[in-house]
Design goal:
The protein is of the alpha/beta class and 318 residues long. The chain has two domains: 43 residues; 249 residues, Metallo-beta-lactamase, Chain A, CATH 3.60.15. The protein is 32% helix and 22% strand. An eight-stranded mixed sheet has the order 6-5-4-3-2-1-14-15, with no helix packed on it.
Length: 318
């Protein structure tokens, strides 16, 4: 007996349905993938404009022990910005130019910093306070430390405005003052009031700080020039430090022989932009350092420079 003939019409319909479903599935997956990627992109853009962590931003996710301090010389091009943090406290010294404010804020947040015990504005020039305008308005700030001087720039005006709008306390420091944030402890070694040299030269109004922890030490000088350096040497303050933050981005107006004698550093950090218009660092400065056997670290060559101390030794952190 012959089997009944197949229902070709029904078979053709089933095949057509299978083909249709097979074709639809890749398009459905592709659409879902596109929507997911679109969501991720939107999320990243929102975080970018919010100053949070985004793709392409270096993350400083170093977890510190209770007895460690990390000093980060943040690469802000032509300018200074230094983050000093322990596992529970943080201090920011300067913030680079205004255009670098968002980058500094990202670095702080990527480092887990949500509160700054102190923000030190060494002096009113924009390449030191400009970026702080963004930081001061976005994080919890304990206190601003700044010299008792003024400037006519828009950056300084906006800097004062954000301090006022956020009710941040301000202190004008004096030589000998101590700033403590947990195991982080600074001694103010300059400037006097009024600052040495011409009144109009605000570089010599720079707040100079010495960080001492155990047997290790760092000296942060802002843009201090020869007049302030000589005043600090004559003051009898303890300037001896393992690491010296070179004043004024390596300008020949700073880092005098007498000052280097008093500091006697093992390492020097210069914060500057590659190919800058000022020719920093000047040859005279680098020669003084190399003649003394001082190791030189430059942000234009290395990017952000990080050094960790446990009070016994200082290690360069990659």
């Amino acid at each position: 007996m012959q089997p009944p003939p197949r229902n070709n019409k029904k078979t053709d319909v089933n095949r057509a349905v299978r083909r249709k479903v097979t074709k639809r599935r890749p398009r459905s997956r592709g659409k879902k993938f596109f929507l997911v990627m679109l969501f991720i992109l939107a999320f990243a853009l929102i975080y970018n404009f919010g100053g949070e962590q985004i793709f392409g931003v270096r993350t400083d996710n170093i977890v510190l022990d209770a007895n460690q301090i990390l000093v980060s010389f943040i690469d802000v091009g032509h300018g200074d910005s230094i983050l000093v943090r322990s596992n529970s406290h943080a201090v920011l010294i300067d913030g680079g130019e205004r255009a670098q404010g968002r980058d500094v804020l990202r670095y702080l947040r990527n480092s887990g910093v949500r509160r700054l015990d102190y923000v030190i504005a060494t002096h009113p020039h924009e390449d030191h306070i400009g970026g702080l305008i963004t930081v001061l308005g976005r994080l919890d700030i304990g206190r601003v430390i700044m010299p008792d001087v003024t400037h006519t720039s828009y950056a300084f005006r906006d800097f004062l405005a954000v301090i006022d709008n956020n009710d941040i306390p301000v202190t004008f420091p004096n030589p000998g003052d101590t700033l403590r944030a947990g195991i982080i402890e600074f001694t103010v070694v300059g400037p006097p009031n009024p600052h040495p040299g011409p009144v109009a030269n605000l570089n010599n109004a720079s707040v100079v700080l010495r960080l001492a922890y155990g047997q290790t030490s760092f000296l942060f000088t802002g843009d201090a020039e020869h007049e302030l350096e000589q005043w600090m040497v004559n003051s009898g303050a303890n300037l001896s430090s393992d690491v010296l933050n070179i004043g004024h981005h390596g300008s020949s107006t700073s880092t005098s022989e007498a000052f280097l004698d008093a500091v006697n550093p093992m390492a020097a950090v210069i914060s500057l932009a590659a190919g800058n218009q000022y020719g920093h660092p000047h040859r005279e400065v680098t020669e003084r350092l190399t003649t003394r056997g001082v190791n030189i670290y430059r942000t234009d060559q290395l990017g952000t420079i990080r050094m960790m101390t446990n009070g016994q030794q200082i290690d360069f952190v990659r």
